[in-house]
Amino acid sequence: MTAFVESITAPHVLPPWKADGVQTWLFGFPLATRAVTDYVDTFFNLGDKDKARYAFEAQAGGETLGTLFVSTYPRIASAYSGQGSGRGDPAASLCVSETQVSVLVPVRRYLVTADNMKLDPQIYFFQPFAISDNSYMVFANREIIGTDVMRGQISLRNSERNGMTVETVIPAIRKFSPRSKEEELPFLRVATGPPREQYMGTYPGQGPPWAVQTVALKQFRDTTNLKAATYQATVTSTVTYRNIGDVRSYQPESVRLEFALWDTVKEILTRFLDLQDLPDHPLRYAVGFTADVTLDQVATLQTFEIA
Amino acid sequence: MTHYVQSVASQQVPPPYHFPDVTVNAFIWDADMAPIQVYCDRYLNLGDADERGFIYRPASFWPYGALVIIDYPTMVSSDPNREAKDIQGTPFPDRGFMSQREAFVVFPLLRAGAPLDKALLNTMVEWALPFITVENAMSAICGREMLGIPKFLGKIDICEGKYPDSFKARVGIPGWPSLQPGEMQDPDLTFLEVETFPALPTFRGGPDETSLWTLLRSGTAGKTIGALGTFNEFVESVSLGLYSFALRTVHLRQFRDATDPFKALYQAIVSCRSTYSSIHNFRFYNENDVKIRFNDRGSFSQILDGFLGARAARRHGQGRSIHIPGMVRAPRVRAAYRFNGNIDFDHTRTLHAFAVDQGDGQPKTKTSDDMLAPWFRPIRGFFSESGS
User: Fold this and answer.
1) pTM for the complete prediction?
2) Is ipTM > 0.95 here?
3) Which CATH superfamily hosts domain B17-252+276-346?
4) Nearest-CA distance from B114 to chain A in Å?
5) Which residues contact B209 (CB under 8 A, 6 or more apart)?
6) Helix residue spans in chain A (DSSP H)
7) Which CATH architecture has domain A17-149+197-303?
8) Residue in B132, B174, B261 nearest the CB of A14
């Protein structure tokens, strides 16, 4: 086994990660299934279909429920305990903080047999986009797991009286043209009303953990021919929420979900969202809670052959 | 060919790039060979010397390192064939441009072919970047993922200092003030500060009789330096790249395994070229008045060890720069100057892919080698049995 040459100038927070007291908000919204099918075919159903060990499909029906996650991690520690680390105790790790905004979309993953039978369906979530305000987490997510995380600025305000507001800013171009300059532009704004009183804190704090299995395409370009890939693989990981408490529910109709439709933003959204539906996009649910979160079980599901 | 699947969320813009009218401020100091040799052995001389066919060493004929701070008002994709396109089919040069600032430390390396039969054909001077910070997130991502350049994403403030026509800069990057367990990262910790007096000639600052500038103070000499930019392009062409002021940098590009991030999936030495042209407004600073202060606390000490080494540490109390022992390292500056010009970034190549042992009984990955010196490339066919 060849060891990765650790570099002090190549910062990585190695998974698994552990963070306590994470505040999370979830906003469910419908997506067109055809957009999800297009996405999984482009990013996950790669290579020779006869050699594919797994197949990804959108959920059945004409609509898929996507979820916008907004999470603030006050303290993330690496719990990596592998060879050469000399670590494993999150309390002994150097720590980072992060606020992340991302969309998760569920898909079904099948095991494909030699007879082309599709067995063992499991639900995985992919992230068509994610924004993080911490560059170390951006690099670790992108380079180790393959999650397509962008660096942005995220400001979040939360109060019982006024609800939660999150605003994101990313480097973007207003209108694609040779004379257009990239600027720091608003991307997404979410504002809730105050939480509904009858739901506040009623979830039992010691309830069962809630786990989300994610999948991402990890890939790197060939340096000489930059249109070609030198490595492609699907990578999975599991995000587990434990000790869920302080649950708040918001009236979906009171939540305003607004995208600033610069050309860069349109480009991101068109892959998984029908922009025609956006002005009156109905939210299906809006909740918030506090939990202890781990990201672990990072594994390579399938490495694609490079021709 | 297996196509790279262009991302929807963060579109990487592949090289080549054109950076017109950049402002470069450069500060040269005595380099310690020991940390540079450690750098070569750790990141470039991997595996067995005979198997890989080359050895990187410090270029002892040029024992200097440099801090370079560049302001890029325009960064644009310059693919002449317009083949690189976004997911909607627009060529990247037509989407727009970016701007940013960049700060890096660079020192020269001599790549010697080994064994003897490769000594002539594979030997050339290349440059290592033990530290680089950029302001633009996409620049950081493209550099790291496409070329293996270990870029930090940070904040670079550039302005005039106390006096008109002087230079002042601060570079902040995420870091940890101490290495105590549980220490929280500071997202904008000062890594370095630079300040000069006005560009020469000036009545301000210390005496300039010992400055390098005194050798070049005549108007003719100043114009000659400006003309060198154009001359270099000509010289590089006629010398087939043997003699060049273009900066060919080398980096170890490697990917971690997702399941065990301690394990490498891929390791290769990658090279790219930055060519400077249309150089003008070349001005010296009095190096005796230049103050460079590196923050020597917490996680930054390890970064500084990588290119300043113990020699700089011994200089605490000896240099002319401001210093606080245990908190700041201040290298002794030998020359300092600034100029404007254009930079073209191209010739990205995988010089050598190492055979990676993937474990679990899997075969090692294939090696590849493209180490031939540029001067030999056009005439290699005359010496090859197959003519290829």
Assistant:
1) 0.90
2) no
3) Acetoacetate decarboxylase-like (2.40.400.10)
4) 23
5) none
6) 33-43, 135-140, 263-269
7) Beta Barrel (2.40)
8) B261
